[in-house]
Write a structure and sequence with these properties.
single chain, alpha+beta, Beta-lactamase, 8-stranded antiparallel beta sheet, 3-stranded antiparallel beta sheet, globular, AmpC-like, Beta-lactam-related
């Protein structure tokens, strides 16, 4: 294991040493941590309250891995069928050709609610709920530019906001409670939770790279597509739990990790709640990235080698996404392409999200760089 430790440490030192990275990183092999790093502060402007192993970060779109697997868990238990139309579970849903599976693999054709609701009349001073996402779609679907179902891949947060409602309908529990009882508690993920407005006093805010705080805005209460908060250690527990076939049968995992969109040639694809690289050498890299406001996250899983790479930050540090390059330390994953990810707002092809509107008091203290000594633990 000394080779892996040395290579990981060298890569992360060269990647983050000259940045303002404010967050945590963990790399594991065979379920054992070989490297951890915790750098900075919960509020990087203050230099107080250092980030620790128990500091939960907003996972942004990495949250979709929980929503996807929660849906598959209900399917495995026979409580739903992902090839049923969404309208079977969400009465009034107007698109009969859209199935639960097409929500999971982003082939529903429904665009992002976070792009169209604000521009189509939603009062931006009123918080959007998951039910609001559904109700707005029902009321306005003839005006929303919806593509034909199953004609191509189109990444959309709306899909997973709707899946959270389906989980609630089928399970009889709230989405936060279902994840807590089904995944977080059984897997010992004691620092993981789903954010709701009741958590407004305790959640960790996010920041621009300059240090200015992102303002809480009208889209921040929707879950399923985002709003799971967790730590790098808890995400390793999630990674390892998914390999236990007593929880998920192999046939269901195989469907989750299969690509469904082949209209365009390339290595990038999407399964059921998971991104993947399908490489020409036969390798498959399972992952999900995330971005929401200043929260940037990366979660890479090399199933063949039982290796895991996790990086989380709350200060808009784009270098988080470079951790994927470490995949080649463990196997031949050919990480030499620079294609953008749908969750990276710096992608020039991705439309800009709606500008945030203040819905609560927000501090605007000027950023002052504090000496934040990086604390790394390369396991001996």
């Amino acid at each position: 294991m000394s080779y892996y430790k040395r290579m990981v440490s060298n890569h992360l030192d060269s990647t983050f040493s000259k940045t303002r990275f404010n967050g945590s990183v963990l790399v594991a092999k065979n379920g054992q941590v070989i490297y951890e790093m915790y750098n900075g502060f919960i509020d990087p402007r203050t230099g107080k309250d250092s980030i620790t192993p128990s500091t939960p970060f907003h996972l942004a779109s990495v949250s979709k891995t929980f929503t996807g697997m929660a849906t598959l868990k209900l399917w495995q238990e026979g409580k739903l069928n992902i090839d049923d139309p969404v309208s079977k579970y969400l009465p009034g849903f107007p698109l009969e050709a859209v199935t639960v599976r097409l929500l999971l693999n982003h082939r529903s054709g429904i665009p992002k609610y976070d792009h169209y609701m604000g521009s189509m009349g939603w009062d931006r001073h009123k918080m959007v709920s998951n039910q609001d996402v559904l109700d707005f779609l029902i009321a306005n679907y003839k005006k929303i530019p919806i593509a034909p179902a199953n004609h191509g891949f189109s990444y959309s947060n709306t899909n997973f906001a709707l899946l959270a409602l389906i989980i609630e309908k089928v399970s009889g529990q709230s989405y936060p409670e279902y994840l807590k009882k089904t995944f977080f508690e059984p897997f010992g993920m004691k620092d993981t939770y789903v954010f709701t407005l009741a958590d407004s006093a305790k959640y960790m805010p996010s920041f621009y790279y300059s240090g200015k705080e992102y303002r809480f805005e009208f889209l921040d209460a929707v879950y399923g597509d985002k709003n799971v908060y967790s730590t790098v250690r808890d995400l390793l527990k999630w990674d390892q739990a998914l390999k236990n076939e007593s929880i998920f049968k192999k046939s269901f995992l195989d469907q989750a990790y299969s690509g469904y969109s082949f209209e365009k040639p390339g290595t990038h694809n999407y399964g059921l709640g998971w991104r993947m690289y399908l490489l020409n050498n036969g390798k498959k890299l399972i992952y999900h990235n995330g971005w929401w406001h200043g929260n940037r996250t990366s979660f890479y899983r090399m199933l063949d080698e039982d290796a895991t790479i996790i990086a989380l930050c709350n200060n808009d540090c784009r270098y988080v996404y470079k951790v994927k390059e470490m995949a080649d330390i463990f196997g031949d994953y050919l990480q030499n392409n620079n294609r953008y990810d749908d969750d990276d707002p710096s992608n020039p092809q991705i439309a800009q999200a709606q500008k945030p509107v203040v819905t609560r008091r927000s501090h605007t203290v000027a950023h002052k760089k504090k000496p934040a000594g990086r604390r790394s633990t390369a396991k001996k």
